[in-house]
Amino acid sequence: MSSRIADDKINEIRERVDIVDIVGSYLPLKRSGANHSGLCPFHAEKTPSFNVNAPRQIFHCFGCGVGGNVFSFLMRMEGLSFPEAVRRMGERVGVEVEEETISPAEEKRREELEQLGRINGVAAEFYHKVLLDDPEGAAGRRYLRERGYDGEIARQFQLGFAPARWDALTKHLTEKGFAAELVRDQLGLIRAGNEGREYDLFRNRLLFPIHDLNGRVAAFGGRVLDDALPKYINSPESPLYHKGRLLFGLYQAREAMRHRGEGIVVEGYFDQLALVRAGFGQAVATCGTALTADHARLLKRYCGRLLLLFDQDSAGLKATFRAMDVLLAEGMPAAVITLDAGEDPDSFLRKQGAEVFRERLTQARPVLDLFMEQTLGAAQGDVAATARAVEEILARLRLLPSDIERSLQLQRLAERTGLDAALLGSKLPGARSAQPPATSSAPPPRPQLPPPRPRKAGGAGTKAQEWLLRLLLAEPTVRQRVAEEGPASLFIDGDYLALAERILQQGGDGELAAEKLLDDSLSEEQTALLSGILMKDEELFFEVQESVFVGCRQAVVQEQKRRRSKALQQLIEEAEKRGALEERVAYQRELTEINRKR
Ligand code: UTP
Ligand code: MN
User: Fewest beta carbons less than 10 Å away: which of 218, 235, 420, 557?
Assistant: First the structure.
């Protein structure tokens, strides 16, 4: 059972594994858009109806209805239990899964993590309130306004302001009953001063909360309002915050990334805000750190391509190429957006506006092109330097997952250097070919679970229920409404109803709830249903929301009537046997009435 392996372990493993790699090691997959497809390994077919969706990290076969996440795939493919599948993947990505029972120490650690989460949440709320309408937040409001941001952005990103006092947060948290030591030792939001007196880490700074993927505040970045140094300080690393694993704005950017299939990576908090304000909601910022492999894996779940947009100076270019190496290793395509020298996205957008920026966006160049140009350019025709540059470039070409692209790049390199393409090609023996099987030493995989029955054709209201589930996953307002109306008045089919209830129980972000649910806790039918829904990336039209609700309610009412009428027929028969004439007439009347309405 999943509860025996710590959730954060499962999450960590799920985040590090790429389902496309795993599935691709069992069967050939072809890429088409955001999806990869192939012949379903779980039933016999001649045309591919088996799909793998990288952004959502799920698979689904439209032929036989099997679906789920990477763990479900492995369970079915190798006949493993859930913990075994998690363990297997853990080994692959170097995450150790401890014993299955939760020790009291582990229990305590988990409780502490939750407490830390609550503290960060309370702190964020406090700072946010100060910024929005406290007299102490006036300076912060003015600063934000001067940089052109309104309350809407402040609310969207839960921006805050730390009052210019030594102990504003310390006091607030103490009043709320939180132990100052915990905040000090684990989160670093409070620091130890002289004579045992504590003081706040953030004072007189505009604060940017960094949310994790559950929307919880993991850390803060804080900017001074003037030219004082350091310009930014950030929460220290903590049990909740590893800067190499979170990106500022990712929580808010996920939908836009999925929608556009690409993400924009910038360096600064304000660069990110500037892009969002200009309509580029798919932007995220690294928080004062280089892009890491963990970042790349995280981003891969939401989009298939990245646009790198670092500061337009030599440091920015260096960071770009460092990111390129990380992304090449992770198989994530990336292009570079070029702005005028010396600008950052924030200053560029302010001076030139969104339209000019959009143009730059369309002119983004594959990062490898830029690398080739820069590296060869720097060699300035010097023979030894050019030879070194070519080696550098070949080392990157080796990492390209597509042999077609590799061959194209090789040709380009040949043209640029005047070297023989065949010679260059012969220097690429280590090229990464199609992924080797994950378990080459293991016996050939055989499906051990019985294939599920094909899903039955949609009955009354099935479509509406499917849509409502989809809305439920995407829209917090819908979640609230369904919770208020009670899912049982909207879903008739047992599996749909169960899914809706589980999604509501999980609370928080609906899509993440879905991802968690796919870990083992659903029946096979429900897993298939959910992966099918997640796979069909149809546009959600908000206008149809109301009619979806109406459709569901109608279906429920119809079903209730059908059942009642069946029951009535039985009751009539019984009443007749007993000779209870009056009863019989009453039932008959009700039945007639129902049938008339139906
Ligand atoms: P920049 O110095 O480019 O700042 O640092 P910026 O984002 O353009 O900020 P504004 O526009 O002057 O307000 C880029 C990023 O590097 C990190 C921050 O994450 C910042 O957004 N940084 C910078 C720090 O962590 N500490 C610093 O002292 C400076
Ligand atoms: Mn800036």
Answer: 420
> What's the pLDDT score for residue 476?
81
d(CA 191, CA 536): 49
Angle among Cα 21, 27, 31 to the nearest 5 degrees reads 65
Instruction: Tell how far the Cα of 249 is from the centroid of ligand 2, in angstroms.
Output: 16
> What single-letter amino acid sits at 186?
Q
Distance 230 CA to ligand 1 centre (A): 9
Compute the distance between CA of residue 247 and CA of residue 265 in angstroms, rounded to an integer.
9
What is the average pLDDT across 211-216? 87
Phi/psi of residue 210, nearest 5 degrees: -105, 115
Q: Which atom of ligand 1 is nearest to 248's Cα?
A: 19
For 266, list phi and psi in degrees, rounded to 5.
-120, 175
Beta bridge partner(s), residue 234: 221
Of all protein residues, whose CA lies closest to atom 21 belonging to ligand 1? 268
Select from 405, 153, 439 the least CA-distant residue to 283: 153
Cα 443 from Cα 145, distance rounded (Å):
64
Q: How far is the CA of 190 from the centre of ligand 2 (A)?
A: 28
- Kindly give, in sequence order, each residue whose CB lies less than 8 Å from that of residue 149, ignoring residues fewer than 6 positions away: 273, 277
Q: What is the pLDDT of residue 439?
A: 38
Token code pair at residue 52: 């793998």
* pLDDT above 80 (res 105): yes
pLDDT, tens only, 539-549: 555 566 777 88
Mutate to test the pocket of ligand 1, among 267, 287, 311, 343 (most ligand atoms within 8 A of CB): 267
Pick from 232, 248, 286 the residue to mutate for probing ligand 1's pocket: most ligand atoms within 8 Å of its CB. 232
Query: Is the Cβ–Cβ distance between 15 and 298 less than 8 Å?
Result: yes
pLDDT at 194 over 90: no
**In the predicted model, what is the mean pLDDT of residues 40-68?**
91
| Cis before 401 (ω within 30) | no
